[in-house]
Amino acid sequence: MSEAFVPGDFGPPAPEPRQVFAIGLNYQDHADEANLTYPEVPPTFTKWVGSFAGPESSLNLPTTTVDWEAELVVVIGKRADQVAPESAWSHVAGLTVGQDFSERTLQLTGPAPQFSLGKSYTGFAPQGPWLTTVDELKDPDDLAIECRINGEIVQKSSTARLIFSVPQLIAHLSSVVPLLPGDVIFTGTPAGVGGARKPPKFLSDGDVVETSIAGLGHIRQTCTTAR
What we know:
Helices cover 10% and strands 31% of the residues. It has helices at 28-33, 104-107, 115-118, 166-174, and strands at residues 20-23, 44-45, 52-53, 56-60, 66-67, 70-76, 92-99, 102-103, 125-132, 144-149, 152-158, 184-186, 208-213, 217-224.
């Protein structure tokens, strides 16, 4: 991983979306590790814009149960309303690297789980380092994705293993609500999250989380418990 980034140099590529969509259980291996049935439609929640951060940032850990989730992030470039999968890529401004950090205790608090709130603490949605247009990629449907913690690979997969591809997600979401320029879609995470491990493993003070996607670059967050 490069050491070129200086904290504060960049913010998220789409800093003020009107809508943010996040997709759960969108890799078969992630559903398998969670012992959950594969979804028939994309499970959808949100991450509030106040959680957005740039590609290199400090991640304050509010509890001892903060988890990592490497994700491909899509930014909408042109209004998408009732879009067919075949034309969905033409509505994309570009792709970037993201992390869907998750505070598992709040997220799973019932009887109605608090997915959106548990995933929206300050700094829980870092993205970057920049926006890569689809025409710059050999195959935008097959991008290697990886997450390392302190240099150790914890997630390694490809977006070709998404249950619902980017075009399928755009088609589904736009069948319900128009997607607007600048809107952001977190597309889901592959297997390897800490909460599914036995015993569970979560982030600690000083941990460095590096997330990369082939052709898009990488982001890096340094965990802290400082208040």
